[in-house]
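LAB NOTEBOOK - FOLDING QUEUE
OPERATOR: T.R.
BATCH SIZE: 2
PURPOSE: Compare the predicted structure-token outputs for two unrelated chains run back to back under identical settings.
PRIORITY: normal
REVIEWER: second-year student, initials M.K.

ITEM 1
FIELD SEQUENCE / FIELD STRUCTURE:
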Amino acid sequence: MSNGDSGRRVIDGRFRLEARLGGGGMGTVWRATDLALHRSVAVKEVRPPDIDLAEYDPRGARLLRERVLREARALARIDHPNVVTIHHIVDGGEGTYPWIVMELVGGGSLADRLERGPTDPVETARLGREVLAALRAAHDAGIQHRDVKPANVLLRPDGRPVLTDFGIAAIRESTALTTTGSIIGTPDYMAPERIAGDDGGPASDLWSLAMMLYAAVEGEHPLRRGTTMATLAAVLYEDVPPPRQAGPLADVLMRVLVKDPPARPDADTLDRLLAAVAETGAVPEAHEAPSEPTSYRLAPAQPQDAVPGPSGPTTARPVRSARRGRGTTVTLSAVGTVLVGVLAWTLLPDGDGSGSSASGTPTNSATASPPADTSSDKNDKNDKNGGSDGSDKSEQADQSEQADDTDLLTPAGIRSALKALEKETGRDRYGTITVYPDYLSAQVMVEGSRTSYDQYTYYVGRGVQEGTIKAQLAGGAQPMTLDGFDWDRLPALFAEAEKKLNVGKAASRYLLVKSPNDVFDRPAEIMLYLTDDHARSGYLQADARGRVTRVTPAD
């Protein structure tokens, strides 16, 4: 590094930095002048988010540098019009991080384009084909992108897309989880299997591509929520709702956006489907709908490594989706549960990070089975009571609670949901529980275990559904029973939250019931969240008896 006559920084005696173009968790991009060839270039300074990585993890820092160099050199060998061209790599040796010199693409990014509004289906399909072509070229060279999103699609002045940041995202595996509990980037476009800890493959990049096209044509992301934690939960737990503005592109997107990677079309099929939309404005009728996802199970979590997964807070009411894969099963690997646990550590109020991300309030697509037929249960109960006149007081009480089961954030509502869970599972010990007005999601402890749990969700009007997540409590979290919780305090707690959280008119509200933690010496507690339309969120914290212990207003 040296300084030019103007005093501006010069890299490797050749590349003079002119202006900062952008930056993120993995470094900063500059517009620069190549002093040898007298042309403008883009220069990316690649560095981990934790500047102290080399001190506490020198081996990790060395592997990071080596991987960046390896993938940048591989990318430099790809000659494709939709792949950013690598001109040069500046390597300062051990103890430094590389600089990557690339072509300067002058038309802004797709993210910039989408700020002006959504794209139409035909335009979106054409763009998707070109980005897919870039991915196929990279996959053929053994490179996965791992971070396909609008900000990483640059546009030439003629509108042609160029995919950038290849390989840079791949180094995230080395640095995504650090001792500071940080995570790089946002989960908006990550495939669910990658969030769950699996390395994924080309099919994971295709998910990200389809999600990006969905956001482009709809003008909103279907699973983005008010916090990174909630978005992670939505990608893991919820189906993608069918798009409303995608026209003939809708079916193509829904074929790709399924949880099970083998159930997604391959790149050749996807290109053919996109071509049909781009060229004729219709999807070929000869193609059948995608098959139901087969069982997909990631590596089982290891108790010593795992930490609690999310309970799935979201910001919209669930609606039924026609594309639910009933056979889908996801067991979080140790990496996946650590990732989610670090987010919980960092983003939930016990940590210092606010974790807020751009919010959206699209319709949620969490699905459930149809309401169970309870006629046999009623007959059994009547038989036990020697008759069928329906006069049993306990049954009347059940019916009374069901009548109030329209808002689970009420004493009667939460009691009815918990009662249904215990009846369905035969268990009464829990990890974290998340409650929204129309559904409750709970980590239900496996019988006889203090760490293993299954995820269950209760939906208003539809009953209990077993979820796809099976994982482990860790990080000091302890299972709990709910006998000591005073649910009758909920109305007063929400009233106090509305007065003190500085949210105004709340667009969403939910609560977390958190189990005790012996590492942090924290008892069981209730946390109430209010969020407005602009993702401004505040929370109120109370003990199990409903006594307020902390109030954190929105900024």
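ITEM 2
FIELD SEQUENCE / FIELD STRUCTURE:
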Amino acid sequence: MSELLNRRLALLGERANLSLLEQCLHGIERECLRVTGEGRLAQTPHPEALGSALTNEQITTDYSESLLEFITPALPDPSDTLASLERIHRFAYSKLGNEYLWSPSMPCPLPAEEDIPIAYYGTSNIGRLKYVYRQGLALRYGKTMQCIAGIHYNFSLPEKLWPLLKQAEGTGGSDRDFQSASYIALIRNFRRYSWLLMYLFGASPALDAGFLRGRPHQLEQLDPDTLYLPYATSLRMSDLGYQSNAQAGLTPCYNDLSSYTDSLRKAVATPYAPYVEIGTHQDGEWVQLNTNILQIENEYYSNIRPKRVTYTGERPIQALMARGIQYVEVRCLDINPFLPMGIDVTEARFLDAFLLYCALNDSPLLTGTSCGNATSNFLSVVKEGRRPGLQLQRDGQPVDMKQWAGELLEHIAPLAALLDRSQGGDAHGKALDAQRAKVSDPSLTPSAQVLAAMAAHKESFAQFSLRQSQAHADFFRSEPLAAEEQTRFEALARSSLEQQAELEQNEVGDFDVFVGAYQASILAISN
């Protein structure tokens, strides 16, 4: 244990400060494909009964018209966050007819690339902007890759915690700068240790053989319809043909907030020759928002992002630069196909202890070598995390992955204990024990369980996934929402459709001018 971590644990363990840790906030975004009863991609439009994908704050779409995204509010107790997510699922199922929500992260057997529908948001300028952005993604990375789904876990520490630490440590500068620097330190530690999450929660060791569209790969054939790697934990997070050459040179340094925002600002303002060659228009129609390395900041693919709630019309970078970091978004979590919502409270409690450890522990700057090691350790674990004797790199030395995982869990234990003291009970300690069991027995990991279930039922990836999707549908449909909850969701859906209609009726200004102004907003802060 580092001296800094010990001091911070002691400070937060004092009676006057202990209740602070009850005020962490947790939000979940869960993506999932709509599929037919045969387990094929649903080609139907986003169900109107779910409201407007543009303006409904809880149910929207991600890349494709078929890729739903459920968004919870940020709440202090993750079990309340999960209860909120469960209500959204139950409501969605009341409106899905004979369609299912696909249970894992890797997609169902997909139609031809051109038949994957891009999400549509109506005729308002902002709706059209979202559509053109997605057309740009199709052009740059292909539609198939955009059909992968995940869980995003949003986490913040209480605002009052930072001034307390800052004062105790005699750090100069403003509270806001200290808070941002602390979140950036959390992100650096997350980069160091996130391989552990992939071992514990990775749940995509196999995929539908058609997914790779005949591209070369290093996967093995499990059966005529399934590709896999025997020791993989998360093929979703591997470099499985999802390499963006444009983004290859873009590894924002997480040394401070300004170097991070600078690298993203430059990428949004720097032309990339192959995109320039395509241009923004084909046959008079928009095909991408611009010809730069990134069309918008969110196009940058990363395992974790610093975030700040934006005002209307404000861009994510502007919000971060103006008001600092408010929370982090963990983006590397697979959907667990055995869980109806893809995540459960045990995983959430462990994530809290893990993120608290990343936030409070020493976090030296990432040098070229340590940055490279963080990336290669992560890739080793997603491709072969359950391989006996797997070695990772730590401080320039090889280390046995299981040994390091065990040590990390021991270091996280005092954080789990502190959270339990703060909130009462032993939920975090039990969540930690569940992870210790997976380290000593790899067959308990979700990735091993997926392969075991497929073998036991003699199923392909698609057959296994459809069976799980049907089981989850039965779970949600067997216990409909209470009448007043159902009515509340229906009212939200209706009002979101009215909001979209109003936007479209009152739209002023030309779309080209709107895109120009949107571009200018980033260039203005680039100077």
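REVIEWER COMMENT (ITEM 2): The chain has one domain: 3-526.
FOLLOW-UP: none requested
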